[in-house]
Amino acid sequence: MDYTIIVSASASEPAARQYIAPYSATAIAEFFADQGRDVLIIYDDLTKHAIAYREISLLLGRPPGREAYPGDVFYLHSRLLERACCLSDENGGGTITSLPIIETQAGDISAYIPTNVISITDGQIFLESGLFYKGIRPAINIGLSVSRVGSAAQTKPMKKVAGKMKVSLAQFRELESFSQFAGDLDEQTRVQLEDGRKAIELLKQRNFEPRENVFSVLTIFALNNFLFRDIQIDDVVDLNQKWVSFVRNLYSELYIKIQKNQWDEEVEQGLKKALEEFKNINNQSNG
After folding, report:
1. pTM of the entire structure?
2. How far is CA 77 from CA 45, 53, 67, 118, 143, in A?
3. C-alpha angle 64/68/73, rounded to 5°?
4. CA 228 centroid distance within chain
5. What long-range pairs does 8-16 form, CB within 8 A, spacing at least 24?
6. Catalytic residue among 37, 66, 137, 148
7. Is 79 an annotated catalytic residue?
8. Using N-to-C axis directions, what is the helix angle for 252-259 and 265-286, rounded to 10°?
9. pLDDT tens-place string over residues 236-275
10. Which of 138, 148, 207, 213 has its CA nearest to residue 169?
């Protein structure tokens, strides 16, 4: 909170105050950006902002459009989010990163306000309550989450190992939904489902336990190379901790290179060698 400013307009505030709050917050953000500071502004949430604007517009007698919103509701959020910027050195060198939050009704991402904001932003992270209640946290729906920035925002090691992760997880979700109606599953489908469940288990994060990028890279690398194929799902988290510690202690040069976002053929081959050695040690200890 030492470097956080909260501009609050709660549900009990008048609609006019709820309408003006995001613009006031953005003006504060621009003040710091003009001083060369880097600002993150989180709008929680723009759905309520649009509802407040709809209330004001209807009171003013403006003609309603889709879902009773006025025709310029798109402009409402586009002019707000387009104030996010990266200033040149001549203009102060500051930045503003906007993170708008949108509430969906029954998970309907195709509603008016969600589609409006999605068309403005560089993609979206779709959080699903059903996944949250299953204990999958962060509860990110892989299929509906999109990044227009894509791999350009990833570090080189993450880009290399996570290329097929999104596709495989989306396929797992689809396969899982169909498999609950099937009686007997063939071996390949069963193995694919088991791999998907283990991947989900490894991607879960506990509260207040941020992960280093190198930890995630090593985890996904191990998943891609089937380290957890013959392991019980209850044991995968402990085994992954041992694998990361193994690389950090015995292959520290590789660990440091990945930590510095370096990746080449030498690093990849070194990790494969380390993984084979770790598998042998693990098999011997279990045997």
Report:
1. 0.79
2. 11, 11, 16, 11, 25
3. 75
4. 24
5. 11/48, 15/52, 15/53, 15/55, 15/56, 16/52, 16/56
6. 148
7. no
8. 130
9. 999 999 999 999 999 999 999 999 999 999 999 999 999 9
10. 138
Beta bridge partners of 177: none
Lookup result for tokens 């723009």: 46
Mind listing the domains of the chain with CATH numbers?
1-121 (3.40.50.300), 154-287 (1.20.150.20)
Torsion, Cα 257 263 266 272, to 10 degrees, reads 90
3-state secondary structure of 96: strand
Classify strands 95-101 and 146-147 as parallel, antiparallel or unpaired. unpaired
Tell me which residues of the chain have a pLDDT lower than 70.
181-183, 287
The number of angstroms, rounded, from the C-alpha of 6 to the middle of its chain's C-alpha atoms is 23
Residue 129 contacts residue 139 (beta carbons within 8 Å): yes
Residues 6+ apart with CB under 8 A from 60: none
Closest CA to 215 of 233, 228, 234, 202: 202
Pairing of strands 95-101, 85-86: antiparallel
H or E element that contains 237: helix 236-250
Q: Determine contact, residues 258/267, Cβ cutoff 8 Å.
A: yes
Q: Which amino acid is at 62?
A: R
Question: What is the SS3 assignment for 35-47?
Answer: CCCEEEEEEECHH
Cα–Cα distance list, 285 to 198, 206, 218 (Å):
22, 29, 22
* Distance from the Cα of residue 120 to its chain's centroid: 18
